[in-house]
Design brief:
Elements: H1 6-17, E1 32-34, E2 57-64, E3 67-82, E4 85-94, E5 102-107, E6 112-119, E7 122-130, E8 138-142, E9 148-149, E10 152-169, E11 172-187, E12 192-203, E13 207-215, E14 218-228
Antiparallel strand pairs: 1-8, 2-3, 2-14, 3-4, 4-5, 5-6, 6-7, 8-10, 9-10, 10-11, 11-12, 12-13, 13-14
């Protein structure tokens, strides 16, 4: 599960790129901030960029390479401690019926927002936002607690592109939006290279309102249709 259908692109990246030899596990003891200049944080933030109250739900329209679907994710109220972080459980269903309902987790500890998907024994911890990071600054994080998937080293490199913007999605105007860009990268022995780029638009006190994904010949657009924050 994820709040959206991003894992479909993650799985596609794996299936297309796993024809490599195994590599040594990178040393990822903690999430790391990476900036091009000093500073890189903002202050005075109020409100969350991912509500987690029981019963809250989000309905998304998704199009991946012209294939469309509608996803509804609801916070169940259950929590779990995973890799030292507190996660909130969400249950997702797909209106097309082509995919089974599933469950996954969201974390928002210390202003860091992570979307954890668990599929076929593979876990991916997508660090998609830090709501205190300034424009032009960012972070690097391992793809999961081991830093590898099936022996291949992976990481996410994120950057804040815009802050406090207004964005219109499906005719509705959202304020206090942060635009982050996250690159999924793998290292097959010659250094990390980008396979998929995600542009995330996240509204304060609402959550993700849009994700644009591109890479490996796959294009995805996910937009918020309806939501209810309890």
């Amino acid at each position: 599960m994820t709040i959206t259908k991003r894992p479909l692109l993650l799985v596609a990246a794996l299936m297309l790129l796993l024809a490599s030899c195994k590599l040594d596990k990178p040393d990822f003891a903690t999430f790391r901030d990476s900036t091009t200049t000093g500073g890189g944080t903002t202050t005075g933030q109020t409100g969350t960029y991912q509500p987690v109250t029981k019963g809250s739900y989000w309905k998304y329209a998704s199009t991946i390479n012209s294939v469309t679907d509608t996803t509804i994710t609801t916070i169940t109220g259950a929590t779990a401690m995973i890799d030292g972080r507190n996660y909130y459980e969400g249950a997702s269903s797909y209106l097309s019926g082509t995919e089974p309902a599933d469950t996954g987790y969201l974390s928002r500890d210390n202003h860091v927002y992570i979307d954890l998907s668990l599929s076929d024994g593979v876990d991916v911890e997508l660090y998609y936002l830090n709501d205190t990071t300034a424009v032009g600054h960012g972070w690097t994080s391992p793809i999961n607690s081991t830093g590898q998937i099936m022996g291949v080293s992976g990481q996410f490199v994120g950057k804040i592109m815009e802050r406090n913007i207004t964005r219109t999605v499906n005719g509705k105007v959202f304020n206090n939006v942060i635009h982050s860009q996250v690159e999924l990268q793998y290292d097959y022995g010659s250094g990390f290279t980008t396979t998929i780029v995600y542009d995330n638009y996240v509204a304060q006190n609402i959550g993700i309102i849009e994700i644009d994904s591109n890479g490996l010949g796959i294009t995805g657009v996910e937009t918020l249709l309806a939501y209810s924050i309890k």
